[in-house]
Amino acid sequence: MTGPYLAGVDIGGTKITVSLANIEGISVKIYQGIRLEGSNTTIPEQVDLLLGYACDHIGVRADEIMAVGVSSCGPFVKENDELIIAAPNLCGGLAIDRGIIPNDWTRIPLESVLSRRWGRMTIENDGVAAIMAERLFGAGRGEDDVVYVTWSTGIGSGAYVDGRLIHGKNGNAPHIGHIYLAEDGPPCGCGNFGDMESLVSGVAIARDFGSVRSAEEVFAAYRGGDGKAEEIINRAVINFARGLASINAVLDTSVFLIGGSVFINNIDILLPGIEAEFYRSFPLLSEDVDIRPCALGAFLGDMAAFSLVMPDEWIKKWQDNRPWEHAPPAVILEK
Amino acid sequence: MTGPYLAGVDIGGTKITVSLANIEGISVKIYQGIRLEGSNTTIPEQVDLLLGYACDHIGVRADEIMAVGVSSCGPFVKENDELIIAAPNLCGGLAIDRGIIPNDWTRIPLESVLSRRWGRMTIENDGVAAIMAERLFGAGRGEDDVVYVTWSTGIGSGAYVDGRLIHGKNGNAPHIGHIYLAEDGPPCGCGNFGDMESLVSGVAIARDFGSVRSAEEVFAAYRGGDGKAEEIINRAVINFARGLASINAVLDTSVFLIGGSVFINNIDILLPGIEAEFYRSFPLLSEDVDIRPCALGAFLGDMAAFSLVMPDEWIKKWQDNRPWEHAPPAVILEK
To answer: Are residues A176 and A282 in the same domain?
Structure first.
């Protein structure tokens, strides 16, 4: 395969993936656990190394990469016109009362570090990048009013309103994990009490059950007939649906696209309850809204990053040929 | 004064006002209690009569009105590309479990009735129209990310995101009165339980206190040292602020403009508490948001309606001369 190439970087709470693609499809995908110790340039330097590694892997030079799309967990702040990551999931200095993140960072200067070696770059909230990808290549094609929500370890989102992506002043719209849903609710890593993430995230489900490592174990207990697991998951379903209804009251959307491991692995349990509760809310606002699973599945993170910088002629070709379905397996690097 | 003229129509839950203006300023303002009995064309016909009355009052013909801006309580639905009012505050057939509205309407076909006699017309949710007016002439000038919230008998809103007004698929964005804030909350007229309107509206404050006709009496009791009034108002303040934080999590705004009779008449009691609770929410999202009272005061409804249809050369002149401050007193018609 020949260039030019695009790079896609997906920064999550636990891992970084870096992929390279040319117009024919994805050439290489590198996966590595995220490094959370050291100075606050650790993550930008890890991304830089992974980009270099990916280039070496397929024998291209850094200057053959025409653009880098970075999809990252947020929120962001702007300082001197530079986009800086200020995510409580990565920055120990922001994760109030949790103490599980082994650093004291409050800011991660991604753009300034990466721009030393890499040219054109677009950085977006992972929810925003995901809705771009699902609208171009997945379950949101042709929709002018469409909201993506990921139900995973945390809650993320992105939205088109009136055919346009919404950003807000610092690119943090919509950050729906932090809408309030309960007057007296549990604490969220962000400092809120009773927000959507504190009530329904994978972390919240595991916390409420106790003595498990992840929400998946609670779903396993539910499937085994455990009453406590059923109660916890039912409450999460109701609050998730009420969260969707709140977002819909603000954005008047047509379609919700739901992704994330908690949802995708348990659609059979979750979707019927979400629909039942959602359509119980103010009928005039809810009745003609469609709730759909995302379509890009395991490719969503890579496609989200590529979508940020993909030229129109690539988009057309990728929509026709769906090359992500034939991507090579990820190369997993030790952390 | 000579034409051409614009008409501004403001349809609220209890009254209709119709105003006419030329480039120099507001020529006449007519005010009448809203008619809620009869067929579902009662309100459109009342608006039509008031427009005719206003024209007669200053001696202009219907065809000298170059455009009509209509600011109305919502929400709206679209049927056959026509915007139709479907507001629980006006349509008895939609006001679930309330029975206080003396009709069984579910739809009010405003556009089709008015278009028989009046030419170019723009109909918008009153919150959307209000934010246009405040951004052109009031406290939101020059802001790209700005949200208007009215705290009155109900809760209304309008928003610019990234410098653009958001509408959503049926023009109902943002309808923030119907975001959820409590897991087990009181009923709202829309059918929700625990949404913002059910917890903080003027109606909710009066309901929680009991044996009063309006929220103003509860504020009077608060000022007189009544402990129950203080408790009710403090809870409303906290929920109002948490509602703002939720909207901010979705829209990542720069400025909230707060209006409405409950707020404007009691800024001294309400604003300090709203600010204290708002800035307690996720600091990265809340810390650089400004909360301001609206600036157009008693003129906001008229200016909202005019803003929907005002030509650019009028806007410039009105920004310089502020002619609304010299509008003639309203002519009040018996219902």
So the answer is: yes
CATH number at residue B55: 3.30.420.40
* Residues B307, B274 share a domain: no
Both structure tokens of A150 = 């990921």
Cα(A19)–Cα(A28) distance, rounded to whole angstroms? Answer: 6
**Residue pLDDT, tens place only, A16-68:** 999 999 999 999 999 999 999 999 999 999 999 999 999 999 999 999 999 99
Best residue of A172, A240, A251 to probe chain B, by most B CBs closer than 10 Å: A251
Task: Please check the confidence at residue A335 and state whether its pLDDT lies above 80.
Answer: yes
- Indicate the helix (H) or strand (E) that contains A57: helix A42-58
Distance CA A31, CA A53 (A): 11
In contact, A143 and A165? CB cutoff 8 Å: no
Q: Distance (Å, rounded) from C-alpha A142 to C-alpha B98?
A: 40
pTM across the whole model = 0.92
Q: Identify the helix (H) or strand (E) that includes residue B221.
A: helix B215-223
Domain range for residue A58? 5-126+299-333
Query: Which of B178, B239, B280 minimises the CB distance to A249?
Result: B178
pLDDT at B297 over 70: yes
Looking at the predicted structure, is the pLDDT value of residue A234 above 60? yes
In a domain, B133, yes or no: no
Per DSSP, chain B holds a count of helices (H) and strands (E) of 12, 13
As given in the structure block, the two tokens for residue A288 are 């003609």
Q: Regarding predicted confidence, which is higher, B183 or B99?
A: B183
Q: Which amino acid is at A255?
A: V
- Report the residue from B86, B174, B249 with minimal CB separation from A175: B249
* Residue B122, number of CB atoms within 10 A of its CB: 15
SS3 annotation, B227-280: HHHHHHHHHHHHHHHHHHHHHHHHHCCCEEEEECHHHHCCHHHHHHHHHHHHCC
Give the 3-state secondary structure of residue B104. Answer: coil
Q: Do A37 and A91 have their domain in common?
A: yes
CA dihedral A76, A84, A14, A138 (to 10 degrees): 60
Nearest to B100 by CA among B173, B189, B191, B166: B189
A253 vs B166: CB contact, 8 Å cut-off?
no
Q: Which residue has the tokens 């059979």?
A: A268
- Domain contains A279: yes
**Hey, how many other C-beta atoms are within 10 angstroms of the C-beta on B151?**
27
Report the candidate in A228, A301, A237, A302 with the shortest Cα–Cα distance to residue A266.
Answer: A237
Q: Which residues of A touch B167 (CB under 8 A)?
A: 161-162, 252
Condensed to tens digits (0 to 9), the pLDDT of residues B259-292 reads 999 999 999 999 999 999 999 999 989 999 999 9
> Which residues, other chains included, contact A311 with Cβ-Cβ below 8 Å and sequence gap of 6+?
none
Does the distance separating the beta carbons of A183 and B181 come in below 8 Å? yes
Is the Cβ pair A181, B176 closer than 8 Å? no
Give the span between the Cα atoms of A24 and B302, in whole angstroms.
58
**Residue A16 CB contacts under 8 Å (≥ 6 apart), including other chains:** A9, A10, A31, A32, A33, A34, A43, A46, A47, A50
Mutation target among B108, B251, B255 for the A interface, most CBs of A within 10 A: B251
Spatial separation of the C-alpha atoms in residues B79 and B309, rounded to whole Å: 23
Residue A131 falls within a domain, yes or no? Answer: no
User: In angstroms, how far is the first alpha carbon of chain B from the final one?
Assistant: 29
Query: Best residue in A160, A161, A231 to probe B by mutation, most B CBs within 10 Å?
Result: A161
Rounded Cα distance between B311 and A101, Å, is 56
